[in-house]
Design a protein that fits this description.
The chain contains 15 helices and eleven strands. The chain is an alpha/beta fold.
């Protein structure tokens, strides 16, 4: 943006001296270019996605990023530049599979991808209802050098990670509107839902009162600093999105282990302003009406670190989390997803977020000027 403004400054007719013999562009052409550049700036300033990308590239916090539409990445998914962009081929295969799963239904969605698998899906709709969705625990990928140091087994990782939660929640953005940040990095490498000091686990809880060691070898300073850099990349991306776009809801999607006494569904409301609680209770009621009998609040989690961080910066935003019990969509040993059950949960979640828009309200009640729908509370 600053470079474009500098070009405008250099060709602005206000700064041109007509007597200068070295001018090679006529005054009329310079006026044309000046107007054209102003139009370009206006387009960029009105396009939140372009603003978002320009900030990411300007600050260079993320290093190299890929940007384009899902259709373009699907087209290029087997090309060498795309394969070689990612940290390793395992990560490439994971992201390639996601792109193939989402194509062609969502081919026009804009995407931004980092080398370590933070993906931003952009379906933002200006002057409409938009969700900022986070699926920060859905990741399963770990660089090979860190895999080699794991004490925790693949089986135990499988039980702990929120596998396939990106598939449970993604319709909220892909079909309705908003931005979705997905993360492919395992929480056992770095956990974005903890403060940075506790984001690399020493141990993890297997069950109540029982913990297990994560690493069989001490991580090097470089290994730690690389993971912390990825953590900072995530929060920089999140902050940039919040400074670029306006969201009605910020929603953190998770799954939970099927331990005794846990509900089927839980909403985390610890960081929600009281003003928005009636909407959450409406969502809770809708889930129950769809057959989910055990739908509770803040059981067992009220919201993690990322929501705490967001609420501190934006205390008036509608911020909450959701936990889906793994028994609802996984096999009994929690080692495999049952696609049919997962698809049903995903569709049901999409239904509970059907908020009536002001336009629809006018059609139903054309003589009423006062909005009475949930939409007014979340705009």
């Amino acid at each position: 943006m600053e470079k474009i403004k500098e070009i405008i400054k250099n060709i602005s007719p206000v700064l041109i001296k007509p007597t200068t013999s070295s001018l090679t562009i006529g005054i009329s052409k310079r006026f044309f270019l000046f107007n054209l550049m102003n139009k370009i700036i206006n387009i960029i300033e009105e396009d939140q996605h372009m603003n978002f990308i320009s900030v990411l590239k300007s600050y260079k916090v993320l290093g190299k990023i890929l940007t384009g539409t899902l259709h373009e990445f699907y087209r290029d998914r087997n090309r060498l530049y795309f394969k070689n962009f990612f940290y390793d081929r395992d990560l490439y295969e994971i992201i390639k599979r996601d792109i193939e799963d989402l194509y062609p239904e969502y081919k026009n969605i804009k995407m931004t991808i980092t080398k370590k698998g933070i993906i931003v899906y952009d379906n933002y709709k200006k002057d409409s209802f938009n969700v900022l969705l986070l699926t920060i625990h859905s990741g399963t990928w770990a660089p090979q050098n860190l895999k080699d140091k794991f004490m925790v087994s693949e089986k135990e990782r499988h039980k702990e990670e929120d596998r396939d939660t990106h598939r449970i929640y993604n319709k909220l953005v892909l079909e309705k509107g908003g931005i979705w940040i997905d993360n492919k990095l395992s929480r056992f490498v770095i956990d974005f839902n903890r403060n940075i000091d506790g984001s690399i686990y020493d141990t993890y809880m297997v069950s109540k009162g029982v913990t297990s060691i994560v690493w069989k070898q001490t991580l090097t300073k470089k290994e730690c600093s690389d993971s912390f850099a990825t953590y900072r990349e995530f929060y920089f991306t999140l902050a940039t999105l919040l400074n670029t776009y306006k969201f009605n809801i910020i929603f953190d999607g998770h799954s939970m282990k099927a331990l005794k006494g846990r509900p089927n569904i839980s909403f985390g409301t610890r960081y929600i302003p009281n003003f928005y609680m009636p909407i959450v209770k409406t969502l809770q009621s809708r889930m129950r009406s769809l057959g989910y009998k055990n739908v509770l609040l803040n059981t067992p989690y009220g919201g993690g670190f990322v929501l705490k961080w967001l609420s501190a910066k934006f205390p008036n935003l509608f911020i909450f989390s959701m936990e889906v019990n793994k028994k609802l969509y996984m096999t009994e040993n929690r080692m495999k997803t049952i696609d049919k059950k997962l698809d049903k949960i995903s569709s049901d979640l999409s239904k509970i977020f059907e908020f009536e828009t002001p336009e629809e309200n006018k059609k139903i009640c054309p003589d009423k000027k006062k909005k009475t729908t949930a939409a007014k509370y979340i705009s």
